[in-house]
Amino acid sequence: MTALREFVLQDLFKFNRIVFDPLTEVYPLLYFYNKILEFPLLAEVAVAPDGQMMGFLIGSRQVDGADRVGDGKDLDLNNNHGHVCTLSINHDYRCLGLGTHLMKRFNNRLELKQDLFVDLFVRSRNVNAIRLYKSLGYVIYQKLPCFYGDDDGYDMRLPLSRDVERRCLQNQEYLMGILFLLLRLPRKYLISLWHALLKLLTKKLF
């Protein structure tokens, strides 16, 4: 039976087989060390009956103190959110729903904190991970060109229950709405709009 427990520092010497997967980002040990110490309740590992590490998730939180008013308890005035720093599953234990289970447990912890949303970064070519995140409700918020040096990245977000109006996706939905409207315009209007934009830029620059 799979056992879920808190990720401890000793696990940093056991997870090489997992983190050296081609689609898992390799960070310095100090990165993991700092995250685990700062957010111990947001780091979890799944262990097989024989003690082998099956997978793990390490997360963090961003507490937006700049937006707080008074004692900071007015939830509508803060942008607190969680971040999935890394999720990785041992190749031998994939397709068992383990990644889904770890992600849901992480999201539930942030729900208890009444955070606004959860976000994560993923390689654009990691189609299996993107499919998993979309099945959990995550949306591609923006594309990040050359984010990984040799590959583009996606910033994906999941609005939590407090974000009833999906505020965390508004910028993305606004831009998509504008793009949709532009694509519906006749070609001659698009050309005219482009020329007008060029004239405006020329005046600004010169």
Please give the share of residues in helix.
Answer: 25-40%
Number of DSSP E strands: 7
User: What is the number of domains?
Assistant: 2
Tell me what the CATH architecture of the largest domain is: 3-Layer(aba) Sandwich
* Alpha-carbon distance between the two ends: 70 Å
Instruction: Work out the radius of gyration.
Output: 21 Å
Ranges where pLDDT stays below 50 over 5 or more residues in a row are 66-72
CATH class of the largest domain: Alpha Beta
Query: Strands of the largest sheet, in order across it?
Result: 1-2-3-4-5-7-6
Please, how many helices? 6
What would CATH call the homologous superfamily of the largest domain?
Gcn5-related N-acetyltransferase (GNAT)
Percentage of β-strand residues:
15-25%
CATH topology of the largest domain: Aminopeptidase
Mean pLDDT: 82
SSE order, one letter for each helix or strand: EHHEEEHEHEEHH
Short summary of the structure?
Helix content is 35%, strand content 23%. With 206 residues, it is of the alpha+beta class. It has two domains: 3-164, 3-Layer(aba) Sandwich (Aminopeptidase), CATH 3.40.630.30; 165-206, no CATH class.
